[in-house]
What we know:
The protein is an alpha+beta fold and 254 residues long. The protein has helices at residues 25-39, 48-54, 59-69, 90-100, 116-124, 136-151, 191-203, 246-249, and strands at residues 5-9, 12-14, 76-80, 83-86, 125-126, 129-135, 156-159, 164-168, 171-178, 208-214, 223-225, 236-242. It has two domains: 5-135, no CATH class; 136-249, Trna Endonuclease, Chain: A, domain 1, CATH 3.40.1350.
Amino acid sequence: MHKSSIGFSKNEEFLPDFFDEFNSKERLRQLFLDLSSSLVKDYYSFSKYEQKNLVKYSLENIFKYKINSLKIFSYIKTFKKQNMYFKFCLHSTLIINNYFHKQNKINIFASSKLLPLAKIISTCFINNKLEIFFDKNLLFHEFVLNRVKKLHKNKTVLDNGDSICVIKNDAAPLKIYTSWKDINVKDLNIKNELSTAINSIKQSEFKQIYLVYPKMKDFSRHIKIKVEELENTTYEIKVIPYSLRSIIRKNKGQ
């Protein structure tokens, strides 16, 4: 599995190395559950209670639990008087039977109309085994995006895929580039990101650029970057540590 991806395949887990306060396998599982839930919340999500209490188990067993927990909810459409109405979905039924009864006879494709149980099975039950992987850069980008939206509710926040833009009428616009990379403050390895920042300053209205990375033990303060070729330009480039600790804190005391 590529080092930029995190997740699991059967009983083998591919988690990030320990960093910051994510210093145990349990906390790294919690990190994965929280980040992936926010990215694919239309398919599944793990509550704070589930995150806290399930992380002692393997990711494979956690997803088995999640699938089984949805069985009692997936078929009921609504209640009317004393009659129970059921929603039948052929594709959902085929997917569910394929998982529980190993009826792997045809290829079944996911649909936005699938029932919740079928959605999660179609997402993480592949080639008759449970597995799911996400690009950790995408997970980190989504985390930062959601946090920026909460911090700048009175501003326009745009997700451009490769960057996040924060725009306000009475302030200079800000562009944020995110990357899940270990930052060594004594030897910054950000040549490609810095090149992108410089080009953005030269070619767009964005003169304030933040290069955002996960906060590490030895990377806890922002670093201002000076660029010789921009010395006659008004600009600001900062390397910013972004903490993921809120994922741990919000589950304490649950």
